[in-house]
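Reviewer 2 asked us to include a model.

Predict the structure of this chain.
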Amino acid sequence: MVVAAVAVLVIVLARGGDNNDRGGSAATQNANTRAEALAYVPPNTPAIIGVDTDSPSASLLLGALVPRISGGALTANDISPLLGNEAVVALLDPRTQRGQLSMVAKDPDALRALARRLKPNGSYRGAQLYAGPQGSAIAIKGQTLLAASDDATVRRALDTGANKTGHMTPAQFDRRLAGLPPTADIRAIFDPKRAVVRNSLPGILNTRWGRSLTNGAAELTEGGTGLRVPFALQTDANRINDLDLPFGTGAQPPTIRGSAPLLIGVKDVARLIAFLRRVDPTRFGQLDSFQRQLPSFLRVNVDGLLNDLNGDGTISSADRLQHFAVRTNPPDPNAWRQPLERLTTLSGVLQNLGIDNVKLDEEGANGYRLVVDDQLAARVGLFGPTLVLTDDARTNLRATATAPPAPTPPGARGGLTLRMTASEGRRLLSSIFGLPASAGAVLDRLGDLTGWARASTASVRGELELGLR
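Predicted model (structure tokens):
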């Protein structure tokens, strides 16, 4: 996702120059140079990005990625004269962000001119090696350029290239695109567990769905008034069933309601709640503590109430899901109202029974506040047929319940939809990259981010779309 965010920024910068839709430029590139660029990448690499360097945005994208991947051995100015064929950026170790670049220079003279400016450092497997700053390294073999943050990585890449059956091929790469068009200017394949989950979202592996993930693919293309990122997360369908999916199946998108900076529409709220409780049991553990301590004679089944929320819902947040509110219409609102009223009435009885770390109090005419161990566990609001659950003390329960529908993302056909306002997207990118105030001119060109996803036991597929102004 960081790579996608980099791509978004550099394409924003590129617009205003050449905005022509180049469509199938990748389809006309030289197949031999693409194969050569991939020949230095092991097939089991956690993430691989293929870039058609003859596309308008390639220079800016590689200019952003290459200095980082090469450990400063190469700059954007070094790369620019070499563009025209396929370039491949491989993420070899997600924990350390170690990676490598491989590409075939379009202009041999430009490559020779670059070599004259580099510091020779011996040879290996027919390639001339060069030393860069802080241990970084470059290799040139014929018209092929390799770069990485350390010499050992470059040498291993040359070893891979010498193994005729031990490297990635164009056919293997295209198969892993999971049906996405192989002609997009920027294409990525990745192992979801190794490249994303284990380092950023380890709790996903607490779920059967997370453990069944096998492959990921995404692309970035320009089209219409913005950028499109179609994606696919493939799973082993033999290991899971529909109930293991993080949200409901089917093509009909849920209705989103509200105007918060981040809105997520979801089909089958109960399934998502159960999924999140497995992903992050610590965050939602207070609900379990509440259920365990309630005497059986009160006949309150928290899990049963949550599991009955099988309709559409909206998750809203003003702080990128640090806190959130869930809005949905339960099949029987009284199934919630009656136990809540009973518990607040018997609050003193609970104290006498020794349950003094759990407090459920009324909050206005339609709201309730649950505190466990002196911390807010949940606030609940019931307004007619609508239920609101939130962990945020600031949420306006009534306004959330009565919020009007928001537009459904264009082309949505699945059980999850997304809307993020342009201002929230700008804050997100600024926090990811630590952008200075001077970046405002670029960020101001970003529009709303919308998206959707459709789940099945074989995959979760969808698309993100970022508007540009």
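Residues 13-29 have pLDDT under 50 and may be disordered. The CA atoms of residues 453 and 462 lie 4 Å apart. We have added this to the supplementary material.
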